[in-house]
Specification:
Elements lengths: L7 E2 L10 H9 L11 H13 L4 E5 L2 H12 L5 E5 L3 H4 L4 H6 L2 E5 L8 H7 L10 E7 L12 H13 L3 E6 L2 H8 L3 H5 L4 E5 L10 E5 L1 H13 L8 H13 L4 H16 L5 E2 L7 E5 L7 H10 L2 E2 L1 E4 L2 E5 L6 H14 L3 H6 L1
Parallel strand pairs: 1-11, 3-4, 3-5, 5-6, 6-7
Antiparallel strand pairs: 2-8, 7-8, 9-10, 10-13, 12-13
The structure holds pyridoxal-5'-phosphate.
């Protein structure tokens, strides 16, 4: 029997809908033409987040992809190589845009839990010679999406950044979920951000805003990124309407991310009871990547079986599924999803074989 409370959507923390109060804040926001830099709400958001990140300036952009890509673009020049961990979002999930739009090649380096080691970065930097591409930048992602919301140890980020700086490279931090790292560890946002020249953060993930990301860096960096934003078609006009959603999210929904982390831990508890399921990475924030091969079923069969019972999760690989907790699923709903998974998944392998 399907769950009585309707679908429990654990596919992503992007599926949240703006609350009534957030919508009211958006309707009431003072606005202006942001290309003239006259939108007071955008200006307030940019100043506030840049300050939280300890950077001189911020720039509001439509998406995390645009934010990352503007940062990479601004840190490098065409033909450069950018060092990334092999499961990086910029490598896997941004449509090849670093190559298509900025003429960059991304050099992927293995790294446990989504982290680069300073030694691996050191080894990967190209010597200066006319055969080689120029290494232009190093990119880090915290929390790490594809590796299950894992949190980079700050010391490791500092060590990687030190190697990059010693070689004169730019450092970019994809902090789409830096909020989660901050809430999970208590480490200040600006301590993480200090490791990088440019930082990208998202408001439309766990924080529950409908649209928007922001990049931050030095005044000079952000001026150039602004110019690139225009080229990429990301300069918006009365964008205060959406920036207000982001401000509301920061002021009201940041602290509650710990609930998402608790809910992910609860869900992990249920899934660990199922023989044949393996949670691939330590559960530190709001993402679970689960290997299902031991059930004798494919990830697609698991996604389908759960969907039929009103629990939505997503396909992470042929043998892996992903669950993400967020503000639109309550602790009770997560428990119900966990109970359902624990009930139906053990029988799935034998059913799949018949
Ligand atoms: C979602 C995400 C992005 C990009 O966000 P969009 O707004 O979907 O373009 C970038 N980096 C990471 C780690 C993400 O999870």
């Amino acid at each position: 029997m399907p769950l009585p409370i309707g679908p429990i959507d654990l596919r992503s923390d992007t599926v949240t809908k703006p609350s009534e109060a957030m919508r009211r804040a958006m309707v009431a926001a003072p606005v202006g033409d942001d290309v003239y830099r006259e939108d007071p709400t955008v200006n307030r958001l940019q100043e506030m987040v840049a300050d939280w990140l300890g950077k001189e300036a911020g720039l509001f952009v439509p998406s995390g992809t645009m934010s990352n890509q503007l940062c990479l673009r601004t840190l490098t020049r065409a033909g450069d190589e950018v060092i990334v961990q092999e499961d990086a979002h910029v490598l896997l999930y941004e449509g090849g845009s670093a190559a298509a739009l900025s003429g960059l090649q991304l050099r992927s380096v293995p790294g446990e839990l989504g982290f680069l080691s300073p030694e691996a970065v050191e080894r990967t930097i190209r010597p200066k010679a006319e055969h080689f591409p120029r290494t232009g930048a190093v990119e880090m992602e915290n929390t790490h999406n594809r590796c299950g919301g894992t949190v980079w140890p700050l010391e490791q980020m500092e060590a990687v950044a030190a190697v990059a700086r010693a070689h004169g490279l730019g450092v970019h931090l994809d902090g789409a979920r830096l909020w989660n790292a901050h809430m999970a560890t208590g480490i200040p946002l600006r301590a993480y951000a200090a490791t990088a020249d440019s930082v990208s953060v998202c408001f439309s993930k766990g924080l529950g805003a409908p649209v928007g990301s922001l990049l931050a860096g030095s005044e000079e960096f952000v001026e150039e990124a602004r110019n690139n934003r225009k080229r990429y078609g990301g300069a918006m006009r009365q964008a205060g309407i959406i920036a207000a959603g982001a401000l509301y999210a920061l002021e009201n929904n940041l602290e509650r991310l710990v609930e998402d982390h608790e809910n992910a831990a609860t869900l992990a508890g249920y899934l660990r009871q199922v023989p044949g399921l393996e949670i691939v990475h330590p559960v530190q924030t709001n993402i679970l990547i689960v290997a299902v091969g031991g059930l004798g079923a494919t990830a697609e069969q698991v996604v389908t079986a759960l969907r039929e019972q009103g629990v939505l999760c997503s396909l992470a690989a042929f043998d892996r599924v992903r669950f993400v907790t967020h503000m639109d699923v309550s602790a009770d709903a997560v428990k119900a999803a966990g109970e359902m998974a624990a009930r139906i998944l053990p029988g799935l392998g034998s059913a799949a074989k018949t």
